[in-house]
């Protein structure tokens, strides 16, 4: 075994230990939802933004807040509303009487982890304000470019049921999210545990107990480790074939973009490193394909009317492609 492999193993052990501690901290408050937490951690390692979709009351906002608490970085929350303007998000130039010049007053988007609640409630003008910052980690206001601090992660939430007063997110913006994670209701045992915690008045106290276990520098190191995870050439072809198949699929009028292929690659490497492996397996790709693709494809209207979901199509595409061994 080479020194490089040994070093990689040690780094992966450290990464795994830290991620386990993050899970434990979040688990002090959140019951179940292990897949959501794992996918959030994957996105954090892959330096990708996340869209959380679920009905009200399934702890979308709370989970994002808790994730921010486990990392010693800045956190900001923005509630999107129909009257929100781009300057409310990005910031604005304010005239300074003392210096007779304009000073830039940064908006809430300038943080490390930014939670955007109900992202689909703001109109297209405000949505477009997010394009540059999500893709390039910078904001241009009045011709001046302001860079974001690292790490920079947008976690947005949306409610899939209520459509009154909401706007469909533009495809170009959806494509900037690494994952769209759908959150289900808890099962019976989990719901009983939630009630038990609330009955014992432990719920609010537990939130205060959640402590930072990761620094920005540690996270940067772990990201470097996860990006150096090995991917066989046949697995690169497997990812490309999945993306290509969505473009040929008769049920879809919009398939996955090349950005989606890159997202699957980065996410698979991060997911493998979470599992303590320095190589990607076909199972890693299968696991991350659904959250990486479901928001990047669009169904034909007739299939939508028939009740077919994007998840159904992604699963069908994956089932059709021979898994590399």
Please provide a brief summary of the model.
With 325 residues, the protein is of the alpha/beta class. The chain is globular. Helices cover 50% and strands 16% of the residues.
Name a few traits of the molecule.
single chain, 325 residues, alpha/beta, Rossmann fold, 5-stranded parallel β-sheet, two-stranded antiparallel ribbon, 11 strands, 50% helix, disordered N terminus
Structural commentary:
- With 325 residues, the protein is of the alpha/beta class.
- The chain has a domain at 30-207: Rossmann fold, CATH 3.40.50.300.
- It is built from 14 helices and 11 strands.
- Strands 2-5-8-1-9 form a 5-stranded parallel β-sheet.
- Strand 6 (138-141) and strand 7 form a beta hairpin.
- Helix 10 crosses helix 11 (258-274) and helix 12 runs antiparallel to helix 14.
- It is globular, with a radius of gyration of 21 Å.
- Residues 1-8 have low confidence and may be disordered.
């Amino acid at each position: 075994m080479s020194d490089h492999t040994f070093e990689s193993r040690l780094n992966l052990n450290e990464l795994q230990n830290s991620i386990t501690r993050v899970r434990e901290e979040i688990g002090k408050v959140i019951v179940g939802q292990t897949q959501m937490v794992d996918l959030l951690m994957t996105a954090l390692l892959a330096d990708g933004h996340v869209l959380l979709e679920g009905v009200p009351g399934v702890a979308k906002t709370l989970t994002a807040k808790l994730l921010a608490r486990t990392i010693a970085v800045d956190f900001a929350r923005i509630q999107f509303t129909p009257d929100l303007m781009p300057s409310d998000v990005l910031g604005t130039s304010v005239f300074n009487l003392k210096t007779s010049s304009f000073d830039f007053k940064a908006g809430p988007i300038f943080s490390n982890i930014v939670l955007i609640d109900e992202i689909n409630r703001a109109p297209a003008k405000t949505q477009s304000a997010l394009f540059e910052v999500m893709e390039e980690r910078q904001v241009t206001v009045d011709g001046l470019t302001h860079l974001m601090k690292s790490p920079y992660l947008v976690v947005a939430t949306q409610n899939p049921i209520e459509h009154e007063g909401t706007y469909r997110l533009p495809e170009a913006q959806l494509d900037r999210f690494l994952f769209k994670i759908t959150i289900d209701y808890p099962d019976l045992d989990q719901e009983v545990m939630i009630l038990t915690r609330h009955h014992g008045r432990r719920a609010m106290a537990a939130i205060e107990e959640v402590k930072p276990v990761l620094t920005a520098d540690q996270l940067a190191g772990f990201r470097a480790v996860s990006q150096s995870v090995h991917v066989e050439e046949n697995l690169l072809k497997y990812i490309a074939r999945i993306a290509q198949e969505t473009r040929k699929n008769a049920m879809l009028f919009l398939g996955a973009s090349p950005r989606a292929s890159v997202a699957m690659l980065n996410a698979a490497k991060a997911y493998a490193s979470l599992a303590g492996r320095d190589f990607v397996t076909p199972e890693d790709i299968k696991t991350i394909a659904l959250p990486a693709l479901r928001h990047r494809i669009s169904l034909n209207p007739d299939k939508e009317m028939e009740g077919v979901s994007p998840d159904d199509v992604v699963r069908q595409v994956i089932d059709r492609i021979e898994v590399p061994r």
